[in-house]
Design goal:
alpha+beta; 8 strands; 5-stranded antiparallel sheet; 3 helices
């Protein structure tokens, strides 16, 4: 079976979440800070605590929203489904719209890699679009995801 994809009941393959432990940990910390700030605001009624609470709450919710994105491949129907978060707003792309898988590295002025991203490019109706499959994951994992996408698209088992 595949290492980076799980089968779905409807015949598709969904990408396993990449880097979820750190994302959930950061989200939990931000939510805890926002609850602490809210408790402080209730006790003191100072305006700054309410602002901090809302900011941390917004960041925490954003992180949880991003951690729920989904990427599903349907090899028999020959299309991909992608949701940016919470399983809503799915975009569908056909296999023949695939424009390639790219790895992008962001480096600082000293040449150290700050982050790496794995993107799937599509050309749909004359417009280019990219979807994010993973961020801050190892090059080995990126290669594995790319290889498994190709295997699933060709409808072969790993």
């Amino acid at each position: 079976m595949y290492k980076n994809f799980n089968p779905t009941p409807d015949g598709g393959y969904t990408l396993k979440k990449q880097g979820m432990i750190s994302t959930v940990l950061i989200g939990v910390v931000l939510m805890a800070i926002s609850i602490g700030s809210l408790m402080s605001y209730i006790k003191t009624s100072q305006g700054n605590f309410l602002l901090y609470t809302l900011l941390f709450l917004a960041f925490g919710l954003f992180i949880f929203w991003r951690s729920t994105r989904q990427f599903i491949i349907y090899p028999n129907q020959k299309f991909f489904k992608y949701s940016k978060g919470l399983g809503v707003g799915f975009q569908e792309f056909r296999f023949d719209e695939l424009d390639g898988v790219t790895q992008e590295k962001m480096k600082n002025e000293y040449g150290f890699t700050l982050s790496t991203t794995l993107l799937l490019g599509f050309e749909k109706n004359g417009k280019q679009s990219k979807i994010l499959l993973g961020q801050n994951i190892s090059a080995k994992t990126m290669r594995g995801i790319n290889e498994e996408i190709n295997l699933i698209m060709s409808n072969e088992q790993a």
